[in-house]
């Protein structure tokens, strides 16, 4: 299916590895122009080289910390306009409610919610003027079915979800869609860290913990980053113009709710 993205430009944050990198590669495979972001310029260059080798698209690399005002300003100084924003922030540290300090809550607020808000502020007005925009926020199934030792993520990604839904209501008339994609247990470094943390708490190996995750998934396996990326690519396209205000799980059936 041709997504008609050859004339579009996208910014993907957290794009040097994992879900962000998979999203960048999928969009580039459709001919979309790319700005990719992370804090580490070396890992960004490695991702850019892989994307170029596989798709022919040469991404523009922007090393910036989106959890800071300085990082947002750096992005603003290097990008005039985009058609597609894929807002992706690395997950806050795992832990149960009483294990987190005030500073952990503040840092997670900046990383997850404020980064998404500030990036949206940067580019939304231009999307309104051009009567086209795709706002895609990578959240988590934790906003649909909270995960006990991911309270920071559950809390602030739920905030992103509320922001996204409100934006979708206000800006749909300008040809702008806003959606959240909700990865379940997916084969990323984040999953490894979660398995290690939970394993240390329970006296079990990370491999055993990942097996316990898998046992809860009707599909019987952990997800692949490219499976989330396929949904992102569709939502970025003109074909998804009537889909807005949603939170779509990509989780192999992990979330058990009807809606």
Write a structural description:
The protein is an alpha/beta fold. The protein has one domain (9-185, 224-250): NAD(P)-binding Rossmann-like Domain (Rossmann fold, 3-Layer(aba) Sandwich). It is 47% helix and 14% strand. The chain contains eight helices and seven strands. β2 (33-38), α2 (41-55) and β3 (60-63) form a beta-alpha-beta unit. It is globular, with a radius of gyration of 18 Å. The two termini are 28 Å apart. The mean pLDDT is 95.
Brief synopsis:
By secondary structure, the chain is an alpha/beta fold. Helices cover 47% and strands 14% of the residues.
CATH architecture title? 3-Layer(aba) Sandwich
Strand proportion: 5-15%
How far apart, in Å, are the first and last alpha carbons? 28 Å
Using the coordinates above, name the CATH class: Alpha Beta
Indicate the overall shape.
globular
Rg over CA atoms, rounded to whole Å, is 18 Å
Number of strands: 7
Secondary-structure content class: alpha/beta
Distinctive features:
259 residues, alpha/beta, Rossmann fold, 7-stranded parallel sheet, 8 helices, 7 strands, globular
What is this structure's SSE topology?
Elements: E1 9-12, H1 18-29, E2 33-38, H2 41-55, E3 60-63, H3 69-78, E4 84-87, H4 102-130, E5 133-138, H5 151-171, E6 176-183, H6 189-202, H7 206-215, H8 225-236, E7 247-250
Parallel strand pairs: 1-2, 1-4, 2-3, 4-5, 5-6, 6-7
Helix pairs in contact: 1-2, 1-8, 4-5, 6-7
């Amino acid at each position: 299916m041709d997504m008609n993205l050859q004339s579009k430009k996208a910014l993907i944050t957290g794009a040097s590895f994992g879900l962000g990198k998979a999203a960048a590669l999928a969009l580039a495979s459709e001919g979309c122009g790319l700005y990719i972001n992370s804090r580490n310029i070396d890992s960004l260059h490695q991702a850019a080289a892989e994307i170029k080798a596989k798709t022919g698209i040469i991404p523009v690399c922007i090393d910036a910390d989106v959890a800071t005002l300085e990082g947002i300003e750096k992005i603003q100084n290097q990008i005039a306009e985009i058609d597609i924003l894929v807002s992706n922030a690395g997950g806050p540290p795992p832990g149960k409610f009483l294990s987190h300090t005030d500073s952990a809550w503040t840092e997670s607020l900046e990383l997850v919610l404020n980064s998404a808000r500030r990036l949206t502020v940067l580019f939304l007005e231009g999307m309104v003027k051009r009567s086209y925009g795709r706002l895609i926020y990578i959240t988590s199934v934790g906003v649909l079915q909270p995960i006990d030792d991911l309270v920071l993520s559950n809390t602030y990604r739920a905030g992103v979800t509320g922001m996204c839904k409100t934006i979708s209501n206000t800006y749909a008339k300008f040809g702008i869609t806003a959606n959240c994609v909700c990865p379940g247990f997916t084969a990323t470094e984040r999953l490894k860290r979660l398995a290690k943390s939970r394993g240390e708490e329970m006296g079990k190996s990370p491999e055993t913990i990942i097996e316990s995750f898998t046992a809860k998934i009707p599909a019987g396996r952990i997800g692949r980053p490219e499976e989330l990326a396929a949904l992102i690519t569709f939502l970025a396209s003109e074909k998804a113009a009537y889909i807005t205000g949603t939170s779509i799980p990509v989780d192999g059936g992990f979330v058990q709710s009807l809606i």
